[in-house]
Amino acid sequence: xxxxxxxxxxxxxxxxxxxxxxxxxxxxxxxxxxxxxxxxxxxxxxxxxxxxxxxxxxxxxxxxxxxxxxxxxxxxxxxxxxxxxxxxxxxxxxxxxxxxxxxxxxxxxxxxxxxxxxxxxxxxxxxxxxxxxxxxxxx
Amino acid sequence: xxxxxxxxxxxxxxxxxxxxxxxxxxxxxxxxxxxxxxxxxxxxxxxxxxxxxxxxxxxx
Lengths: 139, 60
Known about the structure:
By secondary structure, chain A is mainly α. Chain A has helices at 2-14, 21-31, 35-38, 43-62, 75-85, 89-96, 107-134.
């Protein structure tokens, strides 16, 4: 019992208390994919995350994929919106430029729509990773 | 500007970039990241090929 308590306290020691970085890194990482890593000096990881998420999102747009909006109504539209929202700044810019208005009339446009949703979901994972680095849970 | 990808090339691009993100976010050391990324990529592409052949068999 005592050993378990000691082991737990050692594990807790490795996690740093909440700092400004634990808020800034995820927020910045959401807005610009990979930026949460770059701000913490994980240059290569940040660059690879940016290239991966941005390429998937842009390819989705070029394949005439559809961007979901908040007022979709249908449950699947809401789920699509949550996925798209993960892309952060790219989603906001695309909406502002009135992009992603494809009607999903053919297979490639459907792939493009899924590309953009997955880009957002992958960015959510990257944001969580940036947070774990900021609190010292991961190197 | 529009782009037309085939089914396989779309799946290949998807597998490549999803594997990179999975590798970076799911492992701690660089070596483990590369290995896990390659593993995910192989599983994605392997799954695509197996599913493709399975559908071909069902269709016959």
